[in-house]
Design a protein that fits this description.
alpha+beta; Thrombin, subunit H; 2 domains; 6-stranded antiparallel beta barrel; 6-stranded antiparallel barrel; 2 helices; 37% helix; elongated
Length: 283
Amino acid sequence: MYDKSVRRRRAVLGLLVVSCLILLTATFGSTGGAGFFNEVISPIQEGASRALKPVRDLVGWFGDTLDAKGQVKDLRTERDALRQQAVAAQAAERENAELRKQLEMNQALGLDAYAPVGARVITYDPSVWYSRIGIDKGSGDGVKPGMPVVAPGGLVGTVEAVTRGTAQVTLITDSSSGVPARTNVGNPPVQGVVESSGAGNPNDLLLNYTPPRREVRLKSRIVTAGTNSRKFNSLYPPNIPIGEVTRVDDAGSDSQQVHLRPYVDLRGLEFVQVLTAVNGGRA
């Protein structure tokens, strides 16, 4: 009984399928077949499209996200490259500015006669006294102990020790340093010796041993005394700027102390020059 019922249902289903095929064939054979097909299929397509829209949107979102991540990575790489270029450009601009200042100073003071050798500062004194630096030029470049060192603005110190490719420079703030100096005005100018103030302050030097009753005014410029004598070659050429007077203790007395601030920022040195010849001859 059950088998007969199943066979009957299958027969009915087959008949319905055949009828549908016949109906579709007849419909497409007529003039309005396409319209009928659209009327039947369009609702199905629209429903399927609506049902599949979230899936399409999700697939599109994943695609856009992956594209965006790739673009972000590319942009970050480009940003890092541009940042490195900007840093390099700033460093080059700063270096060019320093070199221009050195050239201007050389021309103004006639330092080309002393065969200046440009050097980069590579080490700094880690102590609070900050009295020494290291540079990247040495005996292989004609640098010797005792040669004066300058930077844009004025005097820095003297070469203390050398290797083939490096040198150690003692700054004018060191307690062992003493530079014969004078005021750049006056007839005659006030003479003295620039020394460390002993306070560990790189911005405070002293002009000691000035003549009695010779007053030094505030903001006076102090320069190296040097010498033009053919019999004596001074360690320092004349007229190299050292600093400006900031305070005078016991003015005009025998114990007068003249304080000055160096023209060169000794804590911010990056480039210096070693004067390898004095009075036109080798030191």
